[in-house]
Specification:
The chain is of the alpha+beta class. Helix content is about 55%, strand content about 15%. The chain has three domains: about 60 residues, Nucleic acid-binding proteins (OB fold (Dihydrolipoamide Acetyltransferase, E2P), Beta Barrel), CATH 2.40.50.140; about 80 residues, 5' to 3' exonuclease, C-terminal subdomain (DNA polymerase, domain 1), CATH 1.10.150; about 50 residues, Helicase, Ruva Protein, domain 3 (Orthogonal Bundle), CATH 1.10.8. The protein contains ten helices and five strands; from the N terminus they run βββαββααααααααα. The protein has a five-stranded antiparallel sheet with strand order 3-2-1-4-5.
């Protein structure tokens, strides 16, 4: 079983990353943001935490950015009806922390944003992950020692604001991947921020980010 790889980035494809590990090429299917990162690292060293799935006709290797992301991937794929490809779609759309936040808060609407997730699957993901809240918060704490676990309770209370702000920003052409962490951060900073002010701050931060790029 392959759990971890470290090698130079040989190629970034539409679906994954090819790592050259001591002359042997490994193809790992990865979340889209990680593929984009690898595309800018050709020839450089990269680490992947892997999940290997073997079926009757094929063996597939999935690559994640951290041990905690690998643990979350395994947790998600243990939910009935969730395979590796669907888990990748969830990671690609929401990211590691976005998945944690959606799971802790039971935000089934967030799950529905990912390709291949219908209403029934979104509810199943929400229920299954909400029941593992402690485990999810431990993953966050392990990946970010400065994370305030109590903030998840704040986000649960402010879920309507989070939904409305994300929907508005997505409607303006931004992605969940870039907006969810920002809106979550703003809500943690100022829990009583009105929706209009929240959107204004988010747009200012996003404009500043684009200006620096």
């Amino acid at each position: 079983m392959i759990v971890y790889l470290k090698g130079s980035v040989k190629k970034a494809t539409a679906e994954g990353i090819v790592l050259d590990v001591q002359g042997v090429g490994y193809l790992a299917l990865c979340p889209t943001p990680l593929i984009h990162k690898a595309g800018a690292m050709l020839g450089e060293l990269m680490e992947l935490w892997c999940v290997m799935q073997t079926r009757d006709d094929a063996t597939t290797l999935y690559g994640l950015e951290s041990f905690e992301a690998r643990t979350l991937f395994l947790t998600i794929t243990r939910i009935p009806g969730v395979g590796g490809r669907l888990a990748l779609n969830l990671f690609s759309h929401l990211g590691f922390q976005g998945l944690i936040d959606a799971g802790v808060s039971g935000d089934h609407d967030a799950f529905r944003q990912a390709e291949g997730v219908g209403p029934k699957m979104a509810r199943r993901l929400s229920l299954e992950l909400k029941g593992q809240e402690k485990k999810l918060l431990e993953m966050t704490a392990a990946s970010d020692p400065f994370h305030d676990a109590s903030a998840s309770g704040v986000l649960t209370t402010l879920l309507p604001h989070l939904h409305d702000a994300l929907n508005a920003l997505v409607g303006l052409g931004y992605t969940q991947e870039e907006t969810r962490p920002l809106v979550t951060h703003l809500l943690k900073e100022t829990p009583d921020l009105p929706l209009e002010a929240l959107l204004q701050k988010a747009l200012q931060r996003l404009a500043t980010k684009v200006g620096r790029a």
